[in-house]
Amino acid sequence: MPHQPTELYRDKNHACLMFSDLIEEDGQAVQANQFLIVDDDTGAIIDPGGNLAFNELFMGMSKHFTPQKLSYLIASHADPDIIASLDRWLTSTKATLVISRIWERFAPHFTKLGKTENRVIGVPDAGGHLPLGRHELVLLPAHFMHSEGNFHFYDPVSRILFTGDLGVSMTSGAEARVPVTDLAPHIARMEGFHRRYMVSNKILRLWTRMVRQLDVAMIVPQHGAPIMGKQAINDFYNWLDGLMCGIDLFDDRAYQIPTTQIDPITRQVRPQLQAVGA
Ligand SMILES: [Fe+2]
Ligand SMILES: [Fe+2]
Asked: How much distance in Å is there from the Cα of 230 to the middle of ligand 2?
């Protein structure tokens, strides 16, 4: 059956579901995962996605959960593949948007006038603990990974760490369903993205120092496959500790008055935008 979510975790009172193939794979929009967390009779959507995902996610969610009982729309950051469907979610549910305080006043640009009034929790840079049913989600600082105001979400019940655009791999929706337990062959599918979209090695190291204190069973990114098990997760932290990315790779060669012609008919640009040395 198409569009069946993957059950990342389930017990009597708590479930984490991943929707990974809601967007038609025609190659124009990047594959993206959306998440539903249910605790007792309340729930939250993490990174609801763009308009492409709304209808399918809303219907998929309704099979597992009454949309009226959705408490939160939780956004790791403010990119279009994270939150462009905000207007439709605010119309169809009573949920509150949870997003970095630095994006709080930008998010209303995704909606019709007045839609976000009294419906946004602006999370301060330090993050916090957000009640969900009988439990909570931990909103962990992940700024500059890659967005300036960025959070990751730790669920202490499932021990899943939802990492937005960190840990992303370029895969199909079907491949995204299969957790990675051996990191080495997976690195090639992550490396190009992280070198360009993550801001700096300093930030990666600050982040690994923080999350190594948590008991994490699975790292689940917003694109591509989860990383599962102690060994693969530790290998992932070690890989990040040594990864040069973003501004580490940019120098004066990346900031020259351009000489490249953009052809509006063929839409070709050469050379393509890339980090120096990437
Ligand atoms: Fe993003
Ligand atoms: Fe993304």
From this structure: 25
Ligand 2 midpoint to CA 215 (Å): 25
pLDDT at 1: 45
Please say whether the beta carbons of 82 and 106 come within 8 A.
Answer: no
Using alpha carbons, list the distances in angstroms from residue 242 to 32, 56, 61, 223, 245.
26, 39, 39, 22, 10
Q: Is 150:144 a contact under the CB 8 Å cutoff?
A: yes
β-strand partners of 152? 140
77-92 exposure pattern, b = at least 16 Cβ within 10 A, e = fewer: bbbebbbbbbbbbbee
CA of 268 to the centre of ligand 2 (A): 24
- DSSP output for 173-222: HHHHTS-B---GGGHHHHHHHHHHHS--HHHHHHHHHHHTTS--SEEE-S
Give φ, ψ of 173 to 5 degrees. Answer: -60, -40
Give residue 53's pLDDT: 86
- Greatest mean pLDDT among 18-22, 61-65, 115-119 lies in 115-119
Ligand nearest to the CA of 79: 1
Q: Which residues touch 101 (CB under 8 Å, ≥6 apart)? A: 122, 123, 124, 125, 149
Say which ligand is closest to the CA of 168: 2
For residue 80, report the distance from its CA to the centre of ligand 2, in Å. 8
Instruction: Quote the pLDDT of residue 90.
Output: 96
Task: Kindly tell me the burial class for residue 134, based on how many C-beta atoms sit within 10 Å of its own C-beta (0-12, 13-18, 19 or more).
Answer: exposed
- Give the distance (Å) from ligand 2 centre to CA of residue 259: 30
What is the value of pTM for the model shown? 0.94
The three-class DSSP label of residue 83 is: helix
Query: Ligand 1 center to residue 47 CA distance, Å?
Result: 10
- Give the ligand with the smallest distance to the CA of 223: 2
